[in-house]
Amino acid sequence: MLRILVATDCHLGYLEKDEIRRFDSFDTFEEICSLAVINKVDFILLGGNLFHENKPSISTLVKSMEIIRSYCLNDHQVQFQVVSDQAACLQNRFGRVNFEDPNFNIGLPVFTVHGTHDGPAGVDGLSATDILSACNFVNYFGKVDPGSSDVDQISVCPVFIKKGATSVALYGLGNIRDEKLSRMLQTHYKIQWMKADSEDDWFNLFVFHQKRRKGSSTNGINEQLLPSFLDLVIWGHEHECLIDHQEVSGKDFHIIHPGSSVATSLSNAEAKPKNVVLLEIKGMQYKQTNIPLKSVRPFQYAEVQLKDQLGVELNNEAALYEHLDNIVSNLIDKTAISGSEPKLPLVRVKVDYSGFSTITPQRFGQKYVGKVANPNDIILFSRSAQQNQTREHTGSSEECEPNELDQQSIEELIAESNLILDKNDLDSALHDFVNKDENMAFHSCLDKNIDAAKKKLTFATKDLKAEEDIVLQLDQCMQERMNEDPLLSKGGSEIMPCSQSLPTNALSAFQELKCSSNEEQDTHESDELIEISDKEHSQQASQKRPAPVDGGSQSSRRKTDLSSFYRTAPSKNNDDGGKKGKAPADMEP
């Protein structure tokens, strides 16, 4: 018989800065490890979210490793064997389970997958679970990079475990965004489930960490999408502890919800007693035994609708204070009667105040400092669903709780935006930044897209030199001349447009003009030629030209050499076009 202790959502390090609740997660995790030793299990199976954060503090890491070292490192002999290809199913550098390492004495192995809080992130796709795996404290399996947009197929390689006549195929899959995993489960051959080649009967056990949506495939995983060959599914992420296993219509497997070991959301589901599951497998049969956790902080939950309460008047704050005070006092008394450990209890009262005024929860909780563990958030005000629908129809907005937000809203917003960055990369970076506190997520995304963008961008043009600035002025003068002179505007196809021919021809003409001036003119005339003002160009362009001497047509007369035009310099002493400057052959000087 193979004995397994199953626990999910330990959330180590939760509220580690709270003076009252900072050790709750560690106390419960240590109790879980002690229960594994007391019940002489073969190994511990964790269903994700071992840590509350992707990058836990040093204090959290040290406390976690101290607990694992105290209960898991010993001289006890491991009674089962792993007969599968360990390098294919375990995500570590060494490619084997930790208890087969001769340098370590592992008496209580731990197998774990990652969850939503402690999943891989960053450029290298690492998390705190990889630290424990590198230290040989846990066997980390089912790792898939949840933010990679290049992963089109997933191969789920099981850990084949044999103990006597019992053979168990342990499948694991770390958390992937629900929308992506749901789409892959609905597409054939997107997820490949590796199976044993031998003819032995294998008990197929699957552990994963996803949001569950019964009868729906949106914003969660529908149990109907899971393959039928499975025998038992350990469902992590759901904090509600369901004592009995659940049957799935049309499927041959059962589902077990161990629930979280520490209350994090203070909801009605968290108020149920916390348990771990002792799973005993022999052949193709299994037995489930729920073991209550005694170190969990007591938690009492109640819901109140003010419209149904007697003695509560509209806009009467004093009456509301008195009524809520009685409710909270009764809940505190229940925790004392239950005989639980002397820990300050958690109390949450959800108040439907539709049609009534509210009070300040922090001010109300000051009375219970030292009596409850959460004095600042005892009261949670909310509106009824009918009231919220009325506000939606009238265009009003109402603040939603974080767990009510649509997970697909981020993807939809990114898809609707016109982004320069790659949509899939930005989507993954946003999830890592928000959910995993990966501060370098956007930096990595930006570096990746900058390399791609460099290939598409042209080089910046160089600054214009002094000579090119002068040529630009000449082009502007020529453009003005063409606009003002009707003869130039009627040149048709025989004269190229200024915007196409002038920039290049003007530059070559200007360079030729400098050479000619240095060879044929003296220094005074050369300086006079170079320092032509814009006013003189405009005057020259606006002068009316006399009729041709030979009586040639306009077409033949307008076939003017542009380079010759730029070499023509105005003269102050001679009206015939200058001594050195040569006038066009077909024009009268």
Describe the protein's architecture and organization.
Residues 286-433 form the Mre11 DNA-binding domain. Its cofactor is Mn(2+). Residues 521-538, 573-589 have a biased composition (Basic and acidic residues). With 589 residues, the protein is an alpha/beta fold. Among the domains are: 2-292, Purple Acid Phosphatase, chain A, domain 2 (4-Layer Sandwich), CATH 3.60.21.10; 300-382, Mre11, capping domain (Translation Initiation Factor IF3); 420-454, no CATH class. It has helices at 24-38, 58-72, 86-89, 128-134, 178-186, 317-337, 361-365, 385-393, 409-416, 423-435, 441-454, 466-484, 486-489, 498-520, 523-530, 534-542, 554-557, 562-567, and strands spanning 2-7, 43-46, 81-82, 110-112, 139-140, 154-156, 159-163, 166-173, 191-193, 203-209, 232-236, 242-247, 254-257, 275-282, 285-292, 299-305, 346-352, 379-382. A hairpin with a 2-residue loop joins strand 14 and strand 15 (285-292). The radius of gyration is 40 Å and the shape is globular. The model is unreliable at 146-150, 390-408, 458-465, 491-506, 520-535 and 541-589 (pLDDT under 50).
